[in-house]
Amino acid sequence: MVPFCCLLVVFCIEHALGADIKLPGDGFAPGWKTGGAPRTFLKADLFNHIDGGAELFLEFGFENVIVQHYVRGKAELALEAYEMEGAEAALGVYLMKCGRETPLPGIPTRNSSEAAQFTILKGRYFILIDNPDGDKALVPAMTALAATLLEKIPAFSADARLFDLLPKEKRLAGSERLLRGPFGLQPYYTFGEGDILGLKGRIFAVLANYEEPQGQASTRIVVPYPSPAEALTVFRGLKANLDPYLKILDAGETAFSFVDFRERYGRVRLSGAKLDLAVNLPVRPTL
Fold first, then answer.
1. Which of 101, 122, 150 is the last residue of a domain?
2. What is the mean pLDDT of residues 55-79?
């Protein structure tokens, strides 16, 4: 008879994984075997797995992550499969983590890969395959591991219209990002303390960089709120609580402009249920 505690562990792992993913076992490539039992981390446990950066995953909508090690002699690979609440949440994390996207042709889904690490997106899963030694000879095994895992994951993706809110003219390809709260916004700009754009981990804002003279780039952020009333509340709160290093230059009922300590300019416009923000502008904008 199988002990109840073992059954419980198996149930918890299968439940955490969901019905659309199955970890590769022994033999996904010649000589490779699992290196011990997989470990699963749920929402409350993520800080025990990620040393810094867990907040970003939780902000986007993290559900769980399962970690499995594989060994062949002294060689080792580590697989981490992060299940997010949806394809948009997984895309948001992927775009934040993939850097300059360098896809490997042998992986049949969106990825940014090098010998040390594969960063992969499929459905609601954000996947890392780590090669701690960076040994290029292990890339075929990493590719086989990825292909075996991805085979069972449904190929649905985030809404292709997400970034249609952003202007296409002069947009720098590959700069598109999703935001869902202050941890995602922080690397790009500081408007004020806390969740000043009112994203609350439920609203997806879109961001991209734009070509400007002298090779400098500006940044555009568009936030679609559920209602004009909510957008107006955020607009008023943003204007009233703007970071002290930002000085308001012109202000109206539905727009204001500002300048930062670097003499770079910004502009915020309210239009119905949408906020349109531009920062790092080289010249003073009109409202």
1. 150
2. 97
